Amino acid sequence: MVTLHEGKHYLVDNSRIAAPGEPGLIPEEQAKANTLTYQIMEKHNHSGNMEHLQIQFDCMGVYDNTYVGILQTAYASGLKEFPMPCVFTNCHNCLCAVGGTINTDVHKYAESACVKSGGIFVPPHEAVIHQYMREMMINAGDMAIVSDSHTRYGTQGSVSIGEGGPELAKAMLGKYYEIDYPQVIAVYLTGAPKPWVGPMDVALSLIGAVFKNNFVKNKVLEFVGPGVQSLSMDFRNGIDTMTTESACLSSVWVTDENTREYFEVHGRPQGYREMKPGSQALYDGVVEINLDTIVPMIALPFHPSNAYPLADVIADPEKYLGMVEEEAKKVFENNKDIHLDLKSKIVNGKIKVDQAAIAGCAAGSFENICAVDAIARKADRGLGTFPLNIYPASQPIMYELNRIGVLNDLMNYGVRVKTAFCGPCFGASDAPGNNDFCIRHSTRNFPNREGSNPATGQIASVALMDSKSIAATAFNGGYLTSAEDMQVEYKIPAYHFNHHIYDNIVYNGFGKAKPETELVYGPSIKDWPEMDPLTDNLLLKVASVIRDEVTTTDELIPSGETASYRSNPYKISEYTLIRKDPAYVGNAKAIQECETARRNGDEAKASEAYEVLKAVGVDAPTAELMKTTGIGSVLYAKRPGDGSAREYAASCQKVLGGLANICIEYATKRYRSNCVNWGILPFTCPEPEINLAVGEYIYLPGIRKAVEDGAQQVEAKVIGTDGSVRSLNLDLKGVTEAEKQVLLAGSLINFYKQDQKN
User: Fold this and answer.
1) Which residues of 352-363 are buried (b: 16+ CB within 10 A; e: fewer)?
2) How far apart are CA 222 and CA 187, in angstroms?
3) Are 264 and 273 in contact (CB under 8 A)?
4) Against a cut of 0.90, is the pTM above it?
5) Where are the domains of the chain?
6) 452, 458 contact by CB (below 8 A)
7) CATH architecture for segment(s) 316-500
8) Strands (E), 507-596
9) In what helix (H) or strand (E) does residue 178 lie, and over which residues does it extend?
10) What is the pLDDT of residues 310-328, one digit of tens each?
11) What pLDDT was estimated at residue 561?
12) Rounded-to-integer distance, Cα 210 and Cα 247, Å
């Protein structure tokens, strides 16, 4: 199915893989420049150095879970007018289910910002962010930046990047995106998928092969080979958006006649150009996928990389559900009242599913939904009480499905068809019942991402599957079923794109900024708190220790019920680590009181923290310490930051007084970038089991000078709860000059404020 080839390999004429040393191959440096990635990044690089890039993008996108904080950062940093097309979609907080007027207030704020600064405003329920970008914005050869980790428009010949909010704010200010040139991995496709195989099956096969071994981590995937031409654009998009779950940086595909047709159908033929590697292109590794051999797959909770052939799980439910139950004991070790009982879903040897959903950028495509309709018509039976919810990814897709009768068919059989909304992807809609087992064609199945809340005793779980097998399951009474068993003939009609839908409702203000426009503030929209520059020394109290191998951003700051509070940094910070370590917020706030006292000149309160410094020989007057030594909290996790680009995973820590992270390594570049941009020191410590405990203090003398000097390592003193002292060596490797300035300033906002004064 999937074969990994380590080390450098050549792609020759897009038709075969060759090892270095084969006669007739061009030099490696020349071949490296022949990849699509190199061609595109070279065009967008302004550093003059292809090893250290300064990228300027062609367009950007933000959405209502993220854009308030981004705009506030950008306006505080001097934003006047968007320097490139910037799309604002409203695909996450559409329902106004929580918090009264909060969500609509946020949308009005963004709409006023689009008028003021020349943005593009896509109203709620019109399109999920990535579908709109594909349909209306991305051209072949482009680079885009979007505030969502699933930013993948590679099928259109683009290298696009999902990042945290501060990086978007920088782009809004016309600043460069700085990154070292990444390694590039060829995904070499051969063959063609079987009719019952869908894009999620291919994606899960890829993710399962590369995630846990870090084969493609922070690298660009370049889809090449003769198998590409066997895939429709919807099929390619379905694979492409899921590459995020491989931990890669971005992706790009060769373009062909299918790509050309896609641009023509969407009324943008000028956006197409042929994109292909040179006749000999050098890659840093190869993932070879024989599409002929891909079978229906399932990703069991609690990660897309837990991928198995669906037939195996159906054949031995006791084994596989038992594995998930054992994993749940580790995932919810801090929630002793949680007991997942998936084996109760086995009925007469079959797995009985409780709920299904097909939604978002990965699944809400025209072809996917037409395939579901084909299975529904083949089954020719109603769903009964089984809930199958489908969310087309945009109003044009919904319009066309309605025009050709597909929606009528689906609704007739009992399918619930809903508007464009990302809710099932992050727990804002279709939250299942306690102990439910759900199947979804969406992006992630992380713990609690479906909307359950372990802190109140709730638990549910999600398995990822392709829409075809989900439909087969739904129309088989909810019993887990492979699409292969249905033997359906899929005849997908031609797609017609109705651009008038967007013409009639989308506000396009790019190039037409009206700076006199007043921003519309609702009562829940709050500015970021004031943040201090990095002090000479730091005294940090350990607020949480997480020893899971990987900590997701969903665990650092959950989605779902928090979404409506994204415009209020104080309110949303109350949810930090609430599902993983409910004690964290209280721990962080307790030490933050001492920092607040320091800033306000309250010696009595500040001295409560400084008292521990006597253990390391620091016995200076409190008044002196208050001038030189900041007080805050620190989080330890082994590999934090897998998953969403949400900046709140970092900013909520900062709002609560968090000043540093310590880890073995950061799971993604974007989470580390978010930490840095909020002035959180991104320490690493390669020890697999670092000796730290909640309540201990870490003293960092001379930390400001260490950052100024570009120190690669600093020596910290750990003060135990018993007063004992031990040394801890922490790494600060990989801090760029730009990052150094942000850390010294205390945040990106502070840095740009300083820049304006200068």
Assistant:
1) bbbbbbbbbbbb
2) 6
3) no
4) yes
5) 1-46+182-295, 57-175, 316-500, 537-757
6) yes
7) 2-Layer Sandwich (3.30)
8) 507-508, 537-546, 551-552
9) strand 177-180
10) 999 999 999 999 999 998 8
11) 66
12) 9
